[in-house]
Design a protein that fits this description.
By secondary structure, the protein is an alpha+beta fold. The chain has helices at residues 2-22, 39-48, 77-80, 93-96, 112-118, 172-186, 203-211, 221-229, 268-272; strands spanning 53-55, 105-110, 126-132, 137-142, 146-151, 160-166, 241-243, 247-254, 257-263, 282-284. The chain has a single domain (35-293), classed as endopeptidase domain like (from Nostoc punctiforme) (endopeptidase fold (from Nostoc punctiforme), Alpha-Beta Complex), CATH 3.90.1720.10. It is built from 9 helices and 10 strands. The strands form 3 sheets. A 6-stranded antiparallel beta sheet has the order 5-4-3-2-6-10. Strands 1-7 form a two-stranded antiparallel sheet. The radius of gyration is 24 Å and the shape is globular. 38% of the residues are buried.
């Protein structure tokens, strides 16, 4: 009786295993579908590397009103524990749309998707190009659509704590032509690298690929601004954002100072401190650039 029961159990197991294989289960040794990196993976890897980022705020350029901190407020867990409940501000399009010009730059310390990643490397977390001021249009790179033209109801600037606007020190018609060319050339490029298999590279190298300002498989906000105006022989990367884990070792002088371990990317802070820009023309909330984000901002 006992032997018959054991035999019955073994037969049931064999039938169950065979049904599983017939029903689409994968046999031993058969590879499963590849998984791909996501925006959340990018944010998590940026957080893991957050403590490596610093900013060279010495010898602040005369054209920059804000004094940016040497360590981004959200670059490490210790700093994030001291968010003091800073208040949001609104971006007053209605006041600016008749005085801004095409090609002006808007710097923001803002929550939402952009801030979730960039906050570990930069106090300003987003930068956009004004495209059509009366229409409240911008040319920028955002998470969902990547590089595109957005209006003020589409760009989803969420939880703004700081804004500042600056202009390039160039002829308006040259600036406008550069924006036209960049729209034609870069529109549609995604914000972060898509269809990158987790088997193809490590999370560290995925972050490095996204960071690299010379990689055109993706385009974050400040990289887009940098390349929009680079054809005008304007290098907006002040190389003040440093990284100890992803260094781009250079031994040269830029804006009169030596560069040793500049980040391979270009941050909004880098562009804000560029001497190729005017002084701030409109701004609010600059004191919040040294304050960590409250948790509800994301």
């Amino acid at each position: 009786m006992r032997n018959s029961l054991i035999l019955y159990v073994l037969m049931c197991l064999l039938v169950f295993q065979g049904a599983g294989l017939a029903g689409g289960g994968s046999a031993k040794g058969e590879s499963s579908s590849p998984s791909y990196y996501t925006f959340e993976d990018l944010a998590e890897e940026m957080e893991r590397n957050g403590s490596s980022f610093t900013f060279d705020g010495t010898n602040k350029p005369q054209n920059a009103i804000a004094s940016l901190p040497s360590i981004p407020p959200d670059s490490n867990q210790w700093a994030r524990g001291f968010a003091n409940g800073i208040s949001e501000i609104s971006f007053p399009w209605i006041s600016f749309r008749d005085v801004l010009e095409r090609g002006d730059l808007v710097f923001l310390r803002t929550g939402g998707a952009a801030g979730k990643v960039v906050k570990f490397a930069s106090s300003f977390t987003h930068v956009a190009i004004i495209n059509n001021p009366p229409g409240e249009e911008t040319f920028e790179s955002l998470k969902n659509r990547g590089v595109d033209i957005y209006n003020s109801t589409e760009n989803n600037w969420e939880h703004i704590f700081t804004y500042s606007m600056k202009q390039l020190r160039l002829d308006y018609f040259r600036i406008s032509e550069a924006v036209d060319n960049a729209i034609y050339k870069y529109r549609g490029i995604p914000y972060f690298p898509k269809n990158i298999s987790t088997d193809a590279m490590s999370p560290y190298h995925y972050l490095r690929k996204w960071s690299d300002k010379d990689d055109f498989d993706s385009m974050y906000c400040s990289k887009l601004v940098y390349w929009t105006f680079y054809p005008l022989n304007v290098d907006l990367d002040s190389d003040r954002t440093m990284s100890q884990t992803m260094p781009n070792m250079t031994w040269e002088y830029k804006d009169g100072r030596p560069i040793y371990s500049a980040w391979i990317g270009v941050s909004p802070d880098d562009i804000y401190y560029s001497e190729q820009l005017s002084a701030d023309i409109f701004y609010d909330g600059l004191e919040n650039l040294s304050e960590p984000f409250p948790g509800w901002a994301f």
